[in-house]
Each structure stands twice: as structure tokens, then as C-alpha cells.
Amino acid sequence: MARDAKYDILFEPIRIGPKTLRNRFYQVPHCSGFGSGKPWSQAGHRGMKAEGGWGAVCTEFAPVSPETDENPYPSARMWDDGDVRALGLMASAAHAHGALAGIELHHGGIHCSNESRQPVLTVSPVAGDGLPIVGQTMQAGDIRRVQEDWVAAARRAQAAEYDIVYVYGGHTYLPMQFLSPFYNKRTDEYGGSLENRARFWLETLELVRGAVGDTCAIAVRISVDEVTPATVPVEEALEFVRMADHLVDLWDVNVSSIVEWGKDAGGSRFYPEGYQLQWTGRVREATAKPIVGVSRMTSPDLMVEIVSSGKWDIIGAARPSIADPFLPRKIEEGRLDDIRECIGGNQCIAAVSRSHHLSCSQNATAGEEYRRGWHPEEVPPAENKDRDVLVVGAGPAGMECAIVLGRRGLRRVHLVDAEAELGGNLRWLTRLPGLGQWARVVNYRRIQLDKLANVEFVPGTRLDAAAVRDYGAAVVVVATGARWAADGLNGVTRGPIPGADAGLAHVLTPEQVVLEGKRPPGKRVVVYDGEGYVTGVGVAELLRGEGYDVEIVSPLVSIAQQSDLNLEGVLIREHLRNLGVQQRTLTTITEIRSGGALAEGFDGPLELEADGVVLVTQRLANEQLFVELDSDRGALEAAGIQGAYRIGDCTAPRTLADAVFDGHRLARELESDDPSRPRPVLREWAMHRAEDVVGAAVG
Length: 699
Ligand code: ADP
Fold this sequence. Notes:
Blueprint: E1 14-16, E2 19-21, E3 25-27, H1 39-51, E4 56-63, H2 81-96, E5 100-106, E6 121-122, E7 136-137, H3 140-159, E8 164-166, H4 174-179, H5 194-212, E9 217-223, H6 234-244, E10 250-254, H7 277-280, E11 291-293, H8 300-309, E12 314-317, H9 319-323, H10 327-332, H11 347-353, E13 388-392, H12 396-407, E14 412-416, H13 426-429, H14 440-451, E15 455-458, H15 465-470, E16 475-478, E17 482-484, E18 507-508, H16 510-514, E19 524-529, H17 534-545, E20 549-553, H18 569-579, E21 582-584, E22 588-593, E23 596-601, E24 604-609, E25 612-616, E26 619-621, H19 624-630, H20 633-638, E27 643-646, H21 656-668, H22 690-693
Parallel strand pairs: 3-4, 3-12, 4-5, 5-8, 6-7, 8-9, 9-10, 10-11, 11-12, 13-14, 13-16, 14-15, 16-27, 18-25, 19-20, 19-25, 20-21
Antiparallel strand pairs: 1-2, 17-26, 22-23, 23-24
Helix pairs in contact: 1-2, 3-5, 5-6, 12-14, 12-21
The chain binds adenosine-5'-diphosphate.
């Protein structure tokens, strides 16, 4: 199918300095967990997006010298020839598919951890606002040195054949720290007036442009917003754009500081697609140069609207490009219903915040391009297609498994669920406030399942072990999910909670609240959240919205503690406070009674008054069906079943991304000697010799 003519504008090439971007799709710099340390994964991941049609793909932040790092967060680097070789792989992968390669050259200033053991550099002698670090205040010599490092790194990037070189200041990194009076308290020629505060950035740009501007496009990433005092007022940001415009080929605009990163990489709970436009849409007032902006955009119609309006020339994306590396190609080929839209759950960020390999709730292949050799759009045909497969459970794991098996050409795949609808736990989880867009996981898969003639969804059918054996399938995959503990079982006291019994009127599970409409007998509710992720706060908000007096109680240090990794923790706590939900932390419930609960708080024992307690302590795998099947291998054999496996939450209740991954992996590896175990992955060993990487700077 050809693309709809209304999207033509998205496929017009555009000049950025000495380079031409083939279309208007640009993968902005984003963390991956790969950096320079996993160069093959880096190349595999970005190269896949180039193949999927992105006009440019960029690295994550790439410190210009060992003087600035954010370990343990993995980063790209441009310190020496080792990095030229490592990151050159990615540039080649981009070029092989006709995309430009960009590198986000970076200096963190006060925002770094410094594993190098060199003092952190700071614009002014004020401690870091996220880290308990007081830096070395930069003197003229330090300023020159950093600028020289930036130039040397740019030369190395040029040698590695990068097309776009950043002088990155957005997210309040060093150039922005000079620009922002929040950081900059200097009284010399680098502080005070806007002209003085802009000096560091302008000088650096001039030097980098002089060094590589004939062959590389120069990009600046700058925060333009009013969401934090850490940046500069929008008018000042626009004035800076005017001052620097002659030195810049591409303006990459976003919002907020790294400390309040959740307001930039905003989750779908609080931020709609395109929300940054209210600020970054104004940059056009200050420049005629190309502008790229972001806002977790997946709608081609919105993209067209923005480019046609002239506010931005180029559609930037990080998360949508992870969820669907082939988003541009799908628009080009008129396959909009095949787009795997980002759900805005920020799983990708949670993974890299833990220094884990990249992962995604929608795209099981994200980050697996190199180490597992997975392609997001292609699967190898199954070796033995002549088999029928039964998948029991149509949650995220089961749906993904059935789709991949179907694409691999298995003769017949039956996806059976006790319920009438696809989706498993997402049927009810997505009804919680703020989680509506997570339904995209189900919607995408519903469409794909409909397209597969060899896959059939069989609703309303609960299977027991005997029924599974009698079903007539050669392969059985159990994906029966998990449930919330109904007795308060938890990892703090490592047992159930006395008096916790969801059979009683005043004790409730999340499923009972959302699916069955069970409500406490009075107005006062305690939501006991031992998980600290989305369910507890979602139930609390739901009940508060219905007029209950809600207190969310957690043994953790903060409410929604896990969501800090997804950048939502602070925003959720603020939101609950605004809604009037009471929040109590460091409190372990030890007994539930009619009328309340006994607890151990930070200051000692206490009594919580409540008409009902919702237990969000932990989930339990629905493993009975698999265990029963597995415990009688003779009966399986007699029924002609060659293999029975389990995937997703019925193995161990984990994240949505893990459930989808599990289903995907099993379907890909069905021919393995033991498909229940993952095949070995390609590892990346750091095997440089010292002389490869020390003192080998280019230029
Ligand atoms: P996951 O996250 O691992 O995909 P979910 O909990 O989301 O798991 O989904 C599990 C699905 O399995 C639910 O839709 C549930 O109705 C279904 N299910 C559980 N047990 C059976 C069974 N014995 N027969 C059919 N369907 C089942």
C-alpha cells in the first residue's frame, strides 16, 4: 500500500547545515543502556531504526572527557580512539540504511557522579541539586580546557563519521548551567547578564563549528520551558537562540532539567502527546533554521499538523522509536494500523535508570537486535510448522506468543481465555486512572491477531489440565497470569497479615475493587501498598474519585517508590496530595481488624482507623495449571503433546515488558533443545588493550 498523500510533507528531505535529512523523522538522543560499553548493541539498536525509516539516529549523552560521567548510568563517550572505533559501528549502521548519525556530546557540570575521581566542575560553588556534591568552581583555565575537550571530542566524532555533532546543554547540563541564573552566580564575564551567561555556550559552539562545521551539522539541544526554575525563562531561551543562530544548523528543543526529567520524558499518566509544543512551539519566533521537537508523538496526523504549521520542521522521537523502530516506514507504506504505539509507561527509562539493558512494554525486540539477533518486523519461519499450538491465557504474554507463533507459520494456533475479552490483567489495570494508554498493548495485538488466519482467539473457555491434554495440540503454552494475594502475603513480614481475608467485607483486593465493583462498608479506606508501583496509587485515586477518604500506607520509603524509576514518583505523590489522598510511608501493617489495622510505623506502633483495607501487597503466579500438566509428563506424552511451557506472570509476576518479552522469546525459540530456557545471548566483552584507548586522541 502506498502512503496517504496527506503525509507527504513528512517525507520531504531537509537540509541541516552540510547534511541532508532524508525525511522529517529524527530519533533524538536517548539513553539505551549501551553507550560505548556495548557498541554492537548500540549499533544494532540504532541501525534497526535507520532501517525502519528514521532520517537520523543519535547516541545517548556522550561525555567529552573522563572529567564528567554519570556512572552507573551507561553513556556513550568520545574520549579517545577506542570510542571512535566503538561508536563508529553505530554511524556505519545508520549509514548502511541511509540515515544520518548524530552524537550528543555532553558535559554534565555539577550533574555528574565522577567515577574518574576528578573533581566535578561547577559554574558556581553551589552543591548539585540532585547529588550531594560540591564541585570545583570553574576558572578561566577550566573553561578553556572543557572547550578544548569538546572540540577534540567533535573531531573524534567526525573521524567516527558522525554527521551531526551536538553541543548539548538541554536538561540543564553544563552549557545550560552557565545560561541559567539558577546555577550561575558568577560575577565575571561568564555570569550576570544574559550576554555573559551565554558566553560559554557561544564560545564552545564557535570552536566546535570552526573545527568540524564544514563536514558535520552542529546541533544544540536546549530546554525551553516554564516547568522548572532550573532552566531559563522562555523569553531568555529564545534570545539565546537568536544569539547563537548563526552557529547552529539544527535546534533540538525540549523542556525541563535532568533533576525533573519526568516533566520532559513525561509518562502518559500526566502528559498528552504534543504537550511540549506550548513552549517549544515558540522557538520558531527566534530562528528560521530547522527545529526538531519531541512529545511522545505517534500520531501521523499530529505530526503533519506540526510540520505544516512551521512550528517544528522535524518530528523527534525517543520512546515512540523504541516502541516502533519502523514507525516511519509504516506511515510511508500506509500501514498505520501496524504502528506499535508507545504507551508512555516509561519502562525504557526504568530499565536504563537501573543500568539495565534497554527494554520496552510494547516492543519485545527493543535492545535485542544484536544480542539475540531479533528484528521487530521479521521472524524466521518455524522449522516444524506442521503443528497445532494451544496458548492458554490471552494476557500480554499469551497474545504476544500467539502472534509470533502465527507469524512463524505454525499450522494452527489457538489462544484460549476464560474471559470474553483479550488483555488479561490489562482488562482491569487500564481502567485505573492514568493507565488508559497502556491499553495500546492490547489494541495493537488485537489488530495483529485479526490479521493472522492461522491464529484464533477462543474466548470464554476455562481449561483445566484434562481439557488441555484433550485439546489436540502438539505444543501447549500456559500463560495464565497472576493475581493479587488475598491474605496480605508480603515481602516485609514474609507472610500473610493476620486478619487479612478478602472474603470479608472490609478486606479487598485490587481485582475485587476494579473488576467486581466491591467497595468497603464505610467511607474510610486504607490502601496498603507494598509494591510501590502503579496498582496501589491507581486504586487509591479511583476510590478517592468516588468520594472515599483514602489513606495510602506503604512500608517503603516513599509512596510509588518504584515509579521513581519511571520518572513518575514525584508527580504521582504531588497528584495524590492535590486529590486529598493521605500518604503514610515506612509503615508496616501487622494486623487487620474490622474498623482498622494495627501497624508498625517509623515512630512505633500505631492504629489506623478504616472501614476497609485494600491489599496491594504482592502478586502470586497462577501456576496451578502448568504445575499439574508438568507433574504428569506421561499423561502429556500419551496425549501427543511434545512440549508444555509457561510464560509471563504465571511463571513469576513481573513487569508488563517482561511478560511480553517472555511470550515473544518462547515463540521465537520453540525449536530449541529446551525452549523453556533462553538461548545464550551474544555478550560484549571489554577486551581493549591499554594502548588502544589511552592517549590516542584525534587531532
Ligand atoms: P500475563 O501478564 O502473564 O500475560 P495475565 O494475568 O495478564 O498474564 O493474563 C492471564 C490470562 O489467563 C487471563 O486473561 C485469564 O483469564 C487467563 N486464564 C487464567 N487461567 C485460565 C485457564 N485455566 N483457562 C483459560 N484462561 C485462563
